[in-house]
Design goal:
heterodimer, A: mainly beta, five-stranded antiparallel sheet, globular, B: mainly beta, seven-stranded mixed sheet, four-stranded antiparallel sheet, 11 strands
């Protein structure tokens, strides 16, 4: 059972456009939602993260939108650049004792920004 | 400052053989995690060390996998005997604080191919 569902699996966006990646989660106990960016041959690197007490967080061209009632969150990349081409993973975790305490990841989105 | 380093970067072995993966976390990071990504699937949590103690190993697939972190520094993940379904990329990550408050820093991964 996949607890974090990510879409689309792949995405092609023209340079300067907006890239949008969506994630949905099932466990209402999740309270930390990071996005990781991975370039080929490298490990995932934290891009931006949000907690459910806010509905939006923006860092430069990257914005997370969070909808607690719908149990969905998304990553928006404004003015997408070829250097943004990478695989993006959404993830979720919960602050509780006991049980699995690692991040639960989505399957990833392969983003290509065409020049 | 050196990041999380993993060795080997790629290992090709035959079914039934043994492989040991090594992870050196960022100096001073007490928290060390192992994750695995099977091709096309999500990155899955395997286990979490705090110093030399296993905090959570609920993600370990079966008893063919053994993780150690002697002295609370580097960690090894041994697969014995390896099976075809063990193929994938094994990521190590470390953090200064616990996973739900601090950023995870990932290594570049060890790609394991079992033939």
């Amino acid at each position: 059972q996949q607890q974090v569902k990510q879409s689309p699996q792949s995405l092609i966006v023209q340079k300067g456009g907006i890239s949008i990646i969506n994630c949905a989660y099932e466990n209402t106990a999740f309270d930390y939602f990071p996005w990781y960016q991975q370039f080929p041959g490298k490990g995932p690197a934290l891009l931006i993260a949000i907690r459910p007490d806010v509905s939006e967080k923006k860092e430069g061209r990257f914005t997370i939108s969070f909808n607690k009632s719908a149990k969905q969150f998304s990553l928006h990349i404004m003015d997408s650049q070829p250097g943004d081409s990478a695989t993006y993973f959404c993830a979720a975790s919960m602050s509780r004792g006991g049980g699995a305490d690692g991040l639960t990841f989505g399957k990833g989105t392969h983003l290509i920004i065409q020049p | 400052e050196a990041g999380v380093t993993q060795f080997p970067s790629h290992s090709v072995i035959e079914k039934g053989q043994t492989v040991t993966l090594r992870c050196d976390p960022i100096s001073g990071h007490d928290n060390l995690y192992w994750y695995r990504r099977v091709m096309g699937k999500e990155i899955k949590f395997l286990l979490h060390f705090v110093k030399e103690s296993k905090q959570d190993e609920s993600g370990m697939p079966n008893n063919r996998f053994l993780a150690e972190r002697t002295g609370g520094t580097y960690s090894t993940l041994k697969v014995q005997p390896a099976e075809l379904e063990d193929s994938g990329v094994y990521f190590c990550a470390s953090s200064l604080r616990s996973w739900n408050t601090g950023e995870l820093f990932f290594g570049e991964g060890s790609r394991l191919t079992v033939l």
